[in-house]
């Protein structure tokens, strides 16, 4: 590792830990502060925190890698995500911010659902907590896989821990840094680091594609080179079936059910701040996704033109950072990738820990635990989930995009219809909520286990979020009509109407 890279990464690590210490001094005195930052996030911090915790290493590794291999047809995933994120800010954000506070200041999604549907409170808290922990273990594992690949590709001669490989050492180092500031500073530390990390990520995704295009000989030369290798590489529609199109765009459905994203809506300063946060968040997302698309497409041209062998397409960002920049800038770019990885891991660890703390420990073991005890138990569960995620991501052959897609679908199908209807439909019942939660999660798990995401009935695979979302929606609607209730909805306040 060169001196310049070491300096950049060291400064980045010091900054993250400093933010953790600041947040520890400011906002960890009780559960609301540790888990939601006291509901005092500014629009900019809430927006970039939601975006950075959303995109993860997938933005700089998974998506560019898919585009590098398959061309512009993979950009439909990004388009679907933009559409889904926009409607998430419109439909869910203002209602969730208002209703979680009105329903006895709910601190977690399971707690909100239990208070929204008191007739099935225990079932909702228990089942939703299980779903959150299971899928977040997989999701967090994907982030650690990205961290392992970063260290394995960029620093193959890294000093190893014992007999561990560079990949496994990278997993431990990534997890260690995240744990430091998450354990110390809680939600505020995670949100503030997300804000800084989001800025670093966007800057890297603006700089990298521009330099790659320049080094590849310009847009015209790059286009000619790519078309000479694959005439359909720049087509958004070649080989795209109807099923393939909907499977790609359907990624956007996942936004409505991602606990680590929508929890930011609960923490924003006020309902009135939501539109400003939405505008900031959408601008950040569009710029960052456009940069990731450009990186994958023009990175292919550069690699072909310079006869570079890429063993793993998901490492294209790392390879180009090492090839094209001086060490100090390379260190900054690698810090951007670490930022993408760490921002999501920290958010997921905290949400999973919050659910285990509030919806398991307090509910079943220590109903009258003190606030200080709850904060310390929350820190303990952060560590537990991190260890489980590291075990899941320990295999160096794991794929970031594959793990992310499974967890994304699980959350989107289990919680998406449930969150949308609980916030907008007064006729929804507690039994319907439980039915939708279980039906969505099980459909995704069964779909994945049968391999129908790769091939369905002899044809192309169908992304599991589509059947999961549909089944959950129907289950909620049918069961709610069969079990009507009149006491499970508190009218909106005049301000929220």
Automatic annotation (TrEMBL):
The keyword Transmembrane applies. One of its GO terms (biological process) is proline transport. It catalyses: L-proline(in) + Na(+)(in) = L-proline(out) + Na(+)(out). One of its GO terms (molecular function) is sodium ion binding. It holds the Pfam family SSF. It is a multi-pass membrane protein. It is found in: Cell inner membrane; Cell membrane. The chain crosses the membrane at residues 6-24, 75-93, 123-146, 166-188, 195-216, 236-256, 277-298, 377-394, 400-421, 433-453, 465-483. Gene3D superfamilies: Sodium/glucose cotransporter (1.20.1730.10). GO terms for cellular component: plasma membrane. Keywords: Amino-acid transport, Cell inner membrane, Cell membrane, Ion transport, Membrane, Sodium, Sodium transport, Symport, Transmembrane, Transmembrane helix, Transport. Belongs to the sodium:solute symporter (SSF) (TC 2.A.21) family. Catalyzes the sodium-dependent uptake of extracellular L-proline. This is Sodium/proline symporter. It comes from Martelella lutilitoris.
